[in-house]
Specification:
single chain, seven-stranded mixed sheet, 25% strand, globular
Length: 322
């Protein structure tokens, strides 16, 4: 089979190599999956760079989220077990973590449902307890992670304020359903949030960016607000001032969604059932901005690494039709 493999760490466009390799052999409790579509995530870029919290042995195949097909023909979504990632014609996944693909989503959309929407649901509901009528502030609202949070916030009955960088991404955020869109390149985020909320601030902040985004969030979070720390796409890990959290009476909540696979896998399956219902009702639909040919996978991972994308980039292996 063909697979993109990384033999040394570096920028994705430089270190990913297309190779002809044997199909991986699944271990006990694992399944071999034919890859129908592979969604590109920021962790794929970090894996290439050697900066992710999980460091598979070299060489490895990136690709942490797929829609695949089992040997008995079931269409499923999965997070492949590295080093046999999804940017290949076949991948391996732990059977316990394989979930049915929603019938209402095509392969590319299904490939983009799992990590981003699960992270959004756990962050907004299990961690932050988002309530109907509250105001949700989403950073990088037009990106893969942010766009999922926007849709889930609207599904929960929240007023959603989206922060983006640039006019093109602002248009995408509006199409996603943001009630208010703030372009950080030309607007003061803090002032705009306070204006939109009558001075109260945001009840919940969803932050996959870190750095300056977090700093501004702390300045415009409401009394008893909750800031959900999802990631650090900016590359800058902030050091929160806990005295500020005390004085303003807000909470800082960390979310490492992957831990639920270890600590409470049943919660992931229940969440998937909820997301499947949402998809059937049209409340959520992954924003797939580009369906990428298999041969262009390194460039796609690099685009995600560089932060130039909107929505999701999904790679289709040779012979895939989605």
């Amino acid at each position: 089979m063909q697979a993109w493999r990384v033999h040394r760490n570096g920028e994705p466009s430089e270190v990913m190599r297309l190779e002809e390799v044997d199909r991986p052999t699944p271990g006990d409790g694992q399944l071999l999956l034919r890859v129908r579509a592979a969604d590109i995530n920021f962790p794929d870029a970090l894996l290439c760079r050697g900066h992710y919290q999980v460091r598979p042995p070299l060489p490895f195949t990136p690709g942490v989220e797929i829609c695949g097909e089992t040997e008995d023909g079931r269409r499923v979504i999965a997070t492949p077990a590295l080093p046999y990632g999804g940017l290949a014609q076949y991948a391996v996944a732990d059977e316990a973590a394989v979930l049915p693909a929603p019938e209402t989503l095509d392969d590319a959309e299904a490939a983009a449902l799992h990590i981003g929407y699960q992270t959004g649901w756990f962050g907004l509901h299990r961690r932050a307890g988002l309530q109907e009528g509250e105001t949700l502030l989403v950073h990088a609202a037009a990106g893969g992670v942010g766009s999922a949070a926007v849709q889930l916030g609207k599904a929960a009955g929240a007023t959603v304020i989206g922060v983006v960088g640039g006019a093109e991404k602002a248009a995408v955020a509006r199409e996603l359903g943001c009630d208010v869109v703030i372009d950080r390149r030309g607007q003061d985020i803090v002032a705009a949030v306070k204006e939109a909320t009558g001075g109260r601030g945001a009840d919940v902040v969803y932050d996959p960016v870190g750095g300056e985004a977090y700093t501004k969030s702390a300045k415009c979070v409401a009394f008893e607000g909750r800031i959900v720390v999802v990631g650090f796409a900016s590359g800058d890990i902030p050091a929160p001032a806990l005295n500020h959290a005390l004085v303003k009476n807000y909470s800082i909540l960390g979310l490492h969604w992957g831990l639920y696979n270890q600590k409470d896998p049943g919660a992931i399956r229940r969440c998937h059932e909820t997301l499947t219902e949402y998809a059937a009702k049209g409340l959520i639909k992954p924003l797939v901005s580009d369906r990428v040919a298999f041969g262009d996978a390194p460039a796609a991972v690099q685009r995600v690494a560089d932060g130039t994308t909107t929505g999701r980039l999904v790679v289709l292996p040779e012979g895939a039709t989605a």
